[in-house]
Amino acid sequence: MVDAVVLAGSPNNGPLKECSPVRHEALIPLGSKTMVEHVADALLQARQVNRVLIIGPVEDLAGLSFDHRISMIPSEGGILENIEAGLKVLPGAQRILLVTSDIPLLTPPAVEDFLELCGDMTGDIYYPVIEKEVVEKSFPTSNRTYVKLKEGVFTGGNLFLINPTVYKRCVENGQKIIDLRKSPIGLCRMLGLKFVIKFLLRSLTLKEAEEKVCRLLGGIKGVVVISKHPEVGVDVDKPGDYELALKAIGQD
Question: How big is the chain by its Cα radius of gyration, in Å?
Fold first, then answer.
């Protein structure tokens, strides 16, 4: 069993403001529930998940109806600051499942499959990628950021399994990676000329990318897994994504 941390502190001051006037993206309604409620429900129904900690606007979240296994703390600032705050609330945890609140189409089977792909969980960070054809088969109108690698064309997921003890080692370069997460070329520049060339030639492998990022994050043991569940990578951050999500839950 693992505990999960849901990052729900992003203010609604971007493109999604067209869809709802609420102050935080996690609280944007999608059908009968908010986005964060969809995510929390999927986590709680997954067999391997124990407790769920939501980090966000507590005063607004308190008005929602949550299961007793859910607790909340206020947002501390950026993504990395919030992760650190969550880890402090869950001392002694061997592994923590980190999830963003902007993947409301997440399902219990998708969560369970990801955790099963993590195997014995001896790695420090596990990260899912999804093939483009898998995403487009289920969500043909989805507009994702893809990376072309030797094994195929992939997009990244929005959940991670992490070892809390390595967090401090990852912070500095981790922020750079987060800032560049939707810029494949920017990431390659950060990783080095060899990676830029291999990326452009489409000869970069998943294993090479995995090993380089691990070295960049202080020599941690990171593992990339290939998920067959597109909903782990279909985030809602634009009006078009919102319309797609509404259609997917039958609310169009």
Answer: 17
Kindly give the confidence (pLDDT) of every residue in the chain, 252 residues in length, as a single tens digit, with 9 standing for 90 and above.
999 999 999 999 999 999 999 999 999 999 999 999 999 999 999 999 999 999 999 999 988 888 889 999 999 878 888 998 999 898 888 999 999 999 999 999 999 999 999 999 999 999 999 999 999 999 998 989 898 899 999 999 999 999 998 887 777 666 666 666 667 677 667 667 666 667 666 788 889 888 887 887 778 899 999 999 999 999 999 999 999 999 999 865
| Residues 232, 158 contacting (CB under 8 angstroms) | yes
166-177 b/e (C-beta count within 10 Å ≥ 16 → b): bbeebeeebeeb
What SS3 string covers the chain?
CEEEEEECCCECCCHHHHCCCCCEHHHCEECCEEHHHHHHHHHHCCCCEEEEEEEECHHHHCCCCCCCCEEEEECCCCHHHHHHHHHHHCCCCCCEEEEECCCCCCCHHHHHHHHHHCCCCCCCEEEEEEEHHHHHHHCCCCCCCCEEECCEEEEECCEEEECHHHHHHHHHHHHHHHHCCCCHHHHHHHHCHHHHHHHHCCCCCHHHHHHHHHHHCCCCCEEEEECCCHHHCCCCCCHHHHHHHHHHCCCC
Q: 64 is written with which tokens? A: 């929602």
Architecture of domain 2-248: Alpha-Beta Complex (3.90)
